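Predict fold of Abasic site processing protein HMCES; 335 aa.
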Amino acid sequence: MCGRTACSLGADNLRRACAYRDRRGRRRQPEWIRAERYRPSYNKGPQSSGPVLLSRRHLQQDADSSERVLMDMRWGLVPSWFKKDDPSKMPFNTSNCRSDTMLKKSSYKGALLKGKRCVVLADGFYEWQQHSGGKQPYFIYFPQTKDAMAEGKEGDEEWKGWRLLTMAGIFDCWEPPAGGEMLYTYTIITVDASKDVSFIHHRMPAILDGDEAIRKWLDFAEVPTQEAVKLIQPTENIIFHPVSTFVNSVRNNTPECLAPIELGAKKEVKATPSSKAMLSWLKNSQEGSPQKKENYLPRWTSQFIHSPSPKKTSADILQQWLGKEGEPAAKKRKA
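Predicted 3D structure, encoded as tokens:
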């Protein structure tokens, strides 16, 4: 399943990180719709809002269906046919949608057949492993390249930094029965977990790896539903590391949420000089910080233009990013 994510980029940097090439091969950045509503977070849970990509044609009928826009939507799908006056009165949880029933359940089938497909963006997602002593949280994300720590400059043609995780989702638009502002909501599609992460949990989000998969999922006018759903499958191209139970409370929203820990030792971030310095820098980089502007947020790579990253290069990058040099690396489970 997927019940918690992190997405720490500011609105402008998120847009730059989502650069892509259109049908004519031109490099584009998706336009933000209601960017002022977006709030970065190291710890997003259902019912909060998060950034998604969708085709502009959903909002403008004469638009090119391959053109992308960014929108902040509420997590937890409210179907357009829902009749009550309060979306919080939904009688069941719609934050996740199982791939094997998404064309059967009424909450998702109608929206999916109408092409309401979106890509949910995140730094990565959290999952909890059940064991005799309780639950151990992990942070799961795409492998990274050396560029993940590169300090790009404003105006650089190519975005440098962390590769965003791109999860397949379904969205819908609900209008209050008494009238009022339309509410856009989404659900994250889940599949059976891949071998490497199945020991943590038996389900995982459906991850779209690379721009071709993203293009096909978003372009509902060119790619019919029956073809698009073939993209929904587990991926092995992810890595993970254990994190502190500090992330258990959704009220905790700091870089410590995704900092690696050493299992078997104290499950807290070690207070090394390097970790203190980097964590302090990350805190100051958060949206609205008086000490750093958005342009100085950590740089993240646009995966939409590059081929999938190699699988073995991310551990040191994450350690360096969080100032965790010399501590346990992100790992993949041995077969």
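The longest strand covers residues 165-174.
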